[in-house]
Amino acid sequence: MTATQSPPPTPAPTPQPESAAGAAKPHVAPGPPPGHVHPLIVSLPYSIHERADKATADPQLQFFVTRATYYKDQTRKKVFAEVYGERYDQMRELAGNIKQHTLDYLDHYLGEWIDNAEANGVKVHYARDSAEANSICLEIAKANNCKLCVKAKSMVTEETHLLPELEAMGCETVETDLGEFILQIDHDAPSHIVTPMIHKDRVASAKALTAALGVPYNDEPEVIARVARDHLRGKYRKADLGISGGNFLVANTGSVVICTNEGNGRFCTSAPRIHVAFVGIEKVIPGPEHLSVMLKMLARSSTGQPLTVYTHTMTGPKRAHEHDGPEEMHVILIDNGRTEILRKETREMLRCIRCGACLNACPVYRKIGGHAYGAVYSGPIGALITPLFKGLANYKDLPQASSLCGACYEACPVKINIPKYLIQLRTDMVGGKITGLPDRIFYRVWAASLKHSLTYRLGGWAQTTFFRLQAKLSGTLAKGEKYSARGWLKDAPGPVKGWTSQRDMPTPPAASFRNWWDKEHVRSVNPKAAEALKASGAGEAKPAARQH
Ligand code: SF4
């Protein structure tokens, strides 16, 4: 294994058959429209607010994202309940333990995988960061005179921004996952780990195909798939370089496993003469018996399928007696900040198998979509790993982009306690003074006020008065109407403006919980005092009329 392995001798290009029906058309994606901003290229430090505001004002985006994520989330729950019932949690525990054990002994298992992969004829490289990973890949492409690359979906190559670099060196690169392909020709970027085009519909897809390939507009899904398939078949036949990611590395066989639903991963790794896989170092698991557990959890958590349609295990390049497969197989093991995470308590988050279940379950992701996170990894896991990969100060809004409801933790098949680590990151932000001074002062004052009964009551009184005043000013309560007539504030200023721009806030009841408790407690210990309280009318709260 070397970080800068000397390039192999350039083999003579293998003649590729031309096909009448599927001859490769040029890759004709026109340049992006003027003023186009790439969704995942942001200036740092990144502020989530602008994009989140835009997303929450876009009902179409929310419709697409909410519909798809809700359906996937429900399907996940249903299939796990059907298959594992009450043992579901034990399965999560098992999958989490497999990953955690491997991470705890990563040096051992990674070493074992490298030895076995190299014995199988795989050329293994190690890259400390994105730049090194891309440059290794470019060297391989250059040494083999590669001019056309077909690429399977891979989040790691998104992380390293490989594609523009390949294109810049003159190697035309085509995404072959249907969603990724549409995004590529539309100059867009993935907004979900598993369903990259979750923010678009078939109309947008048909328009993109018409604009890029010049085909007549037709938004029937079968036609869209056929147009893309015809275009891509020609590319597969001519490609000399195939790029993929890797869902798992199996240590004791030296294999790379990829899971796809469209079969494009097989084409990319089998048809071209050179195959390069980009894989994060955390993807290793000990053996095939562990793979069977992980595959079951991955497919059901991602899409609700018992298994992905194509689960492809690659154990080296084409052998002498074999018909298909690449002449050379390279694997680039990528660190890019992972060993730093491994050093800390947060290493648990490297268990992630990129199933996307936490995104589907997250109420924040459903509201703002993936691009609002301003990074390749979005949703709850993105809110965790992006600040760790790219610096907490650069992405200080992301740990806050969570309601800490725990839905992500319940959905995660490898039991990553995402809320716990989001709180940890928030603590780190305060400790490192990354949180702004006004926020730090506000929370200190708040924390101090909670410690004393008098300041606590004073705070409660101020809050209640504020909301009652708003209820009067906004007309929620008519003139002369008692505060006990509950209503909903639709638009409040100041610190609650953000909240009421998206949902209503209940007006305070006539009596607080403390009033109620005092009254009930007094009634039980001192009936006479209770009678006196009743006569004064204090502590009588009327039930709220709930509105939606
Ligand atoms: S954190 Fe868990 S649920 Fe989220 S993508 Fe990773 S494995 Fe899936």
SSE topology:
Blueprint: H1 49-56, H2 59-84, H3 88-104, H4 106-119, E1 123-127, H5 130-143, E2 148-151, H6 155-160, H7 162-168, E3 172-175, H8 178-185, H9 202-213, H10 221-238, E4 241-244, E5 248-250, E6 255-260, H11 264-270, E7 274-280, E8 284-285, H12 288-302, E9 310-314, E10 328-334, H13 338-343, H14 357-361, H15 363-368, H16 379-390, H17 407-411, H18 418-431, H19 437-450, H20 453-473, E11 488-489, H21 497-500, E12 505-506, H22 513-525, H23 527-536
Parallel strand pairs: 1-10, 2-3, 2-4, 4-7, 5-8, 7-10
Antiparallel strand pairs: 5-6, 6-9, 11-12
The structure holds iron/sulfur cluster.
Iron/sulfur cluster binds next to helix 14.
Any key phrases for this structure?
alpha/beta; Rossmann fold; Fumarate Reductase Iron-sulfur Protein, Chain B, domain 2; 3 domains; 6-stranded parallel β-sheet; 23 helices; disordered N terminus; disordered C terminus
Strand content: 5-15%
Structural class: alpha/beta
Name of the top-level CATH class of the largest domain = Alpha Beta
Number of DSSP strand runs? 12
Instruction: Determine the CATH superfamily of the largest domain.
Output: NagB/RpiA/CoA transferase-like
| Low-pLDDT segments, ≥5 res | 1-24, 539-548
Percent of residues in helices? 40-55%
Largest sheet: spatial strand order: 1-10-7-4-2-3
At the fold tier of CATH, the topology name of the largest domain is: Rossmann fold
Separation, N- and C-terminal Cα atoms: 61 Å
Task: Identify the overall geometry.
Answer: elongated
Report the radius of gyration as a whole number of Å: 28 Å
Which architecture of the largest domain does the CATH hierarchy give at level 2? 3-Layer(aba) Sandwich
User: How many structural units, i.e. domains?
Assistant: 3
Largest sheet: 6 strands, parallel
Mean pLDDT: 88
Can you list the ligands bound to this structure?
Answer: iron/sulfur cluster
Given the structure, what is the number of helices? 23
